[in-house]
């Protein structure tokens, strides 16, 4: 086989030496002419020959060293500054380089996927001596050659931030939504940085982004006609957080009990725990719903602490902080809540309400009567007041309560907060009958949760089916809802309504950017956190 086929036509193999550590291939240039790299004029006039000794790709794991007898030519253009130029081997070996292009490619691909120092050690074993610095130079060089070419026609991009050091320094990653590739990373996540980038890329028509206002501002400042698409998953996630936190604020951690509800009796230890806790709670009936929940949590912490005997273990098991555990295990009664004094709108009706409570009227019925009498408060505040009053009614009710608890074994309904959140979030068609029953029971006691449920279901359908026309109506309706978190969610959404509508219409999300943010994290780890931004950028863009 003629090995010459692996080299440019004008290079002829003169000899091949197989030495102990290296294969030496001597080549001679036979080119009759060459073009001046400066003015481009063709020249036949040879000035001299000189030797180039680049490394080439290995053969059977042995490094290859070339010895090329190359030519120098005179430039014949009298107006050219270059009088003598060296022969070029386009596509095979660049001027002034110590590696052939094909070997550079291999090193380049390797240095994109490992650290320069590791690669240097690896190559040493293969017989190539390359310092980490030399390999880094290689990386820097691709950037200057490849840059810009692909960014000129970008139209649809995604933008997101990522952190250099967790929570301290942030950068920005910009992705092409068509190719799913990152096209740039910026050293900051400031409005200014993104604005400057946008100005250099006037072809951009659409940007997906999370709800960070810095990017929005940059878009407004550069080109307000750019279509902004908020990230669907972000706002769905925010809404899920509303549900989670609303549930969290009402029920104890890990499990909850709903009074006046029914479920078949179970005799597993978990149920027993629940019953003990019911007793403990009912002995503190003067507490509000929230306080009861907290007290139940405290009892749970104390119980776990008694079992495992260490604060650290308890904290880990219950996913609480150690300070919380340490504080709570010392309490022998419910902590007193310090509340802001509030104007009590019930004052004029107190006697009346107390009487109704004694007569056993329901909160809803009482609320209706109050409204008739000109009461201005909401149904949930009436409900809380009624609960409070009922809890404070002497003997009769608490007898009733204990009686209820003794009958109770069959009247306990139990779900973790996580389950509850999931029941409210999921489509009703995906729930089992007992789960639906549980929700119904829940809603009878908590009317506002029932409304939250409706809100969630409508919103999710509206997002998945792209019903833009329903969005502003939904926002309008719940922006004044009694659940504060829901209200706040609506207000935040309203500030960004246009891009949220766009999210329902356009098939883009910011998932591509988020994928790339994860990739950046991986690359950072591989670089041991000591590489410069410049290198990180090259690795992100070209690997
Ligand atoms: Zn010239």
Concise overview:
The chain has 543 residues and is of the alpha+beta class.
Q: What does this 3D model show about the protein?
A:
The chain is of the alpha+beta class. The chain folds into four domains: 1-98, no CATH class; 156-231 and 509-542, Ribonuclease H-like superfamily/Ribonuclease H (Nucleotidyltransferase, domain 5, 2-Layer Sandwich); 237-263 and 412-506, no CATH class; 264-372 and 382-405, no CATH class. Helix content is 50%, strand content 15%. α8 packs across α9 (311-318) and α12 crosses α13. Zinc ion binds at residues 36, 38-39, 41, 75, 77, 80, 82.
SSE topology:
Elements (H helix, E strand, L loop, with lengths): L10 E8 L4 E7 L4 E2 L6 E2 L2 E7 L2 E5 L2 E13 L9 E3 L14 H13 L2 H10 L6 H15 L9 E10 L3 E8 L5 E5 L4 H10 L5 E4 L3 H10 L4 E4 L1 H19 L5 E2 L11 H14 L6 H20 L2 H8 L3 H7 L21 H9 L4 H10 L6 H14 L3 H13 L5 E2 L1 H9 L7 H13 L1 H18 L3 H11 L5 H12 L1 H9 L5 H16 L6 H10 L1
Helix pairs in contact: 1-3, 2-3, 3-22, 4-5, 6-15, 6-17, 6-19, 7-8, 7-14, 8-9, 9-10, 12-13, 16-17, 17-18, 18-19
Q: Report the count of strand segments.
A: 15
Report mean pLDDT, rounded to a whole number: 80
Task: Give the count of helical stretches.
Answer: 22
Tell me the fraction of residues in β-strands, as a range.
15-25%
Largest sheet: 6 strands, mixed
Bound molecules: zinc ion
Low-confidence stretches: 259-285, 395-411
| Helicity range | 40-55%
The Rg value, from CA coordinates, equals 37 Å
Q: What gross morphology would you assign?
A: elongated
Tell me the count of domains: 4
Measured between the Cα atoms of the first and last residue, the distance is: 36 Å
* Structural class assignment: alpha+beta
Protein name: Transposase
InterPro entries: Transpos_ISL3, Transposase_DDE, Transposase_Znf
Domain Transposase IS204/IS1001/IS1096/IS1165 zinc-finger: 34-76
Domain Transposase IS204/IS1001/IS1096/IS1165 DDE: 157-359, 400-539
């Amino acid at each position: 086989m003629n090995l010459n086929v692996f080299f440019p036509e004008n290079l002829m193999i003169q000899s091949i030496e197989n030495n102990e550590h290296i294969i030496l291939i001597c080549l001679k240039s036979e080119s009759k002419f060459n073009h001046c790299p400066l003015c481009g004029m063709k020249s036949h006039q040879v000035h001299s020959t000189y030797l180039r000794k680049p490394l080439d790709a290995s053969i059977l794991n042995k490094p290859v060293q070339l010895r090329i007898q190359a030519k120098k030519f005179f430039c014949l253009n009298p107006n050219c500054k270059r009088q003598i130029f060296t022969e070029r081997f386009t596509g095979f070996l660049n001027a002034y380089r110590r590696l052939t292009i094909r070997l550079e490619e291999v090193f380049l691909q390797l240095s994109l996927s490992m650290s320069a120092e590791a690669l240097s050690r690896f190559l040493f074993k293969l017989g190539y001596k390359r310092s980490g610095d030399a390999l880094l130079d290689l990386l820097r060089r691709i950037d200057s050659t490849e840059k810009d070419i692909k960014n000129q026609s970008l139209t649809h991009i995604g933008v997101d931030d990522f952190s250099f050091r967790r929570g301290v320094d942030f950068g920005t990653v910009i992705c092409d939504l068509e190719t799913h590739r990152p096209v740039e990373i910026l050293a900051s996540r400031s409005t200014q940085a993104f604005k400057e980038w946008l100005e250099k890329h006037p072809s951009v028509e659409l940007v997906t982004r999370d709800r960070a206002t810095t990017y929005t501002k940059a878009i407004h400042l550069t080109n307000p006609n750019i279509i902004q698409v908020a990230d669907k998953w972000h706002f769905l996630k925010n809404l899920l957080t509303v549900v989670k936190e609303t549930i969290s604020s009402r029920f104890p951690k890990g499990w909850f009990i709903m009074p006046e509800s029914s479920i078949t009796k179970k005799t597993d230890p978990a149920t027993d725990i629940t019953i003990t806790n019911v007793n403990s709670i009912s002995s503190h009936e003067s507490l509000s719903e929230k306080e009861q929940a907290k007290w139940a949590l405290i009892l749970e912490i104390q119980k776990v602490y008694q079992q495992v005997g260490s604060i650290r273990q308890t904290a880990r098991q219950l996913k609480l902080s150690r300070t919380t555990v340490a504080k709570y295990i010392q309490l022998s009664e419910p902590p007193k809540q310090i509340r802001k004094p509030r104007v009590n709108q019930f004052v004029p009706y107190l006697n009346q309400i107390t009487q109704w409570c004694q007569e056993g009227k329901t909160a809803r019925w009482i609320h209706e009567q109050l409204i008739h009498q000109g009461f201005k408060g909401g149904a949930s505040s009436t409900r809380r007041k009624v609960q409070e009053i009922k809890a404070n009614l002497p003997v009769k009710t608490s007898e009733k309560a204990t009686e209820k608890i003794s009958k109770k074994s069959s009247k306990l309904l139990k779900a973790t907060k996580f389950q509850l959140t999931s029941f409210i979030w999921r489509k009703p068609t995906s729930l089992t009958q007992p789960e639906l029953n549980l929700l119904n029971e829940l809603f009878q006691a908590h009317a506002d949760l029932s409304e939250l449920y409706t809100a969630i279901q409508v919103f999710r359908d509206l997002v998945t089916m792209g019903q833009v026309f329903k969005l502003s109506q939904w926002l309008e309706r719940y922006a004044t809802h009694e659940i504060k978190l829901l209200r706040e969610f609506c207000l935040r959404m309203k500030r960004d309504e246009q891009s949220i509508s766009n999210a329902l219409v356009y098939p883009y999300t910011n998932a591509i950017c988020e994928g790339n943010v994860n990739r950046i994290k991986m690359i950072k780890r591989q670089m041991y956190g000591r590489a410069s931004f410049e290198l990180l950028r090259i690795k992100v863009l070209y690997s």
